[in-house]
Amino acid sequence: MPMHYLGVAGGTRRYSQYTEVAYLQKLMPIHAFMTYAAIITIAAQFIFVINLFWSMFKGPKASDNPWEATTLEWTTATPPPHDNFGGVTPVVNHGPYEYGVPGAARDYVMQTDPVTTATH
Hints:
By secondary structure, the protein is mainly α. The chain contains two helices and no strands.
């Protein structure tokens, strides 16, 4: 938004020194604000990069189905084998969104689970 305001106020681009043009003197605080905002944004990116590498090398490994999703892609190992299902073609017994099934052992039923409960 500050850059939009500068454009509406008549601020120019590609000037090497804004202090030489008299009408741009009033816009210098906005330039300073944008500089500070850019520095804060870069600092936040450093936090992201540090967290990324920390998680890669020191963080716990995710399980094969960390979100307890019920679709076929979550029945494979992580990382998936060469042909996605390790040479075994999955047999689909349930729909892809079987959550909250009455009588199920878990809160969800995987597509490849055998039919033991009545699904809705």
